[in-house]
Design a protein that fits this description.
Elements lengths: L6 H10 L3 E5 L3 H14 L3 E6 H6 L3 H14 L6 E8 L1 H10 L3 E4 L6 H17 L3 E6 L4 E3 L2 E3 L6 H8 L5 E4 L17 H10 L5 E3 L7 H9 L2 E6 L1 H16 L11 H4 L1 H18 L6
Parallel strand pairs: 1-2, 1-10, 2-3, 3-4, 4-5, 5-8, 8-9, 9-10
Antiparallel strand pairs: 6-7
Helix pairs in contact: 2-4, 2-12, 5-6, 7-8, 10-12
Bound molecules: 1,3-dihydroxyacetonephosphate.
Length: about 290
Amino acid sequence: MGLVSAKEMLEKARKEGYAVGQFNINNLEWTKAVLSAAEENKSPVILGVSEGAGKYMVGYNTVVAMVKGMIETLNITVPVALHLDHGSYEGALACIEAGFTSVMFDGSHYPIEENIQKTKDIVKHATERGISVEAEVGSIGGEEDGVTGTGEVADPKECKMIADLGITMLAAGIGNIHGKYPENWQGLNMAVLKEIGETTNEIPLVLHGGTGIPDVMVREAISYGVSKINVNTECQLVFAAATRKYIEEGLDLKGKGFDPRKLLKPGYDAIIKVVKEKMDLFESSFKA
Ligand code: 13P
């Protein structure tokens, strides 16, 4: 199917009551693993790229070329959106130019008036090219690739103001955190999420910090309008654990076990397993 905007897949998910996973990519193996899992599960998928990961993968043009090449050569038939995660204003414009099909402009750290102004501007540039836009109100706690949030809970009135700007999907802070959740985490603020879902005109809502949220909470969040769930840390953890096991078992020292195609295979397989499990949990499998 090639690269598409996230609009259609998310509106379908919102209407039918499931969520599409955004899985952040970090390199070639990651990208291939997420695309292969999506194809095997017949699920739509969103590839998330943070600005830091974009830089690591040698720039947005390289990422676009790699993803397009893989979709073609792996014969990926499910809808795939290539999405900038937590973009700055400049980053969002750069990704629109480079050929991303979806961008997040994270203006949550600006005063609301400035967030509105900048979001509006990004929407104008993106909509002209059929690119979907995610905006954020109320910051997501924790740290991801140098972007730190205080974990402030979103104000439903501000959510409505941003949702009305013509954006495709809205991320609202509801006590969710990037990375591992602390022992004393209070859980997602379902009352606020429900209110946001009711006041934002059926816009697909985005749940960041997908790693470590209990399954029942994920399902409840979907019932209130969450249609996109972001997962990053969990894939990193399983990749690292599988690679550690391979080396601790001395497999890199046996035969040609040091060949990167062998060394990185257990981590690659571990990512595929997690992505497929999440797709089943979010109920996006067989929805492509
Ligand atoms: P986790 O790293 O907690 O899974 O969060 C991912 C995310 O929200 C990306 O924006």
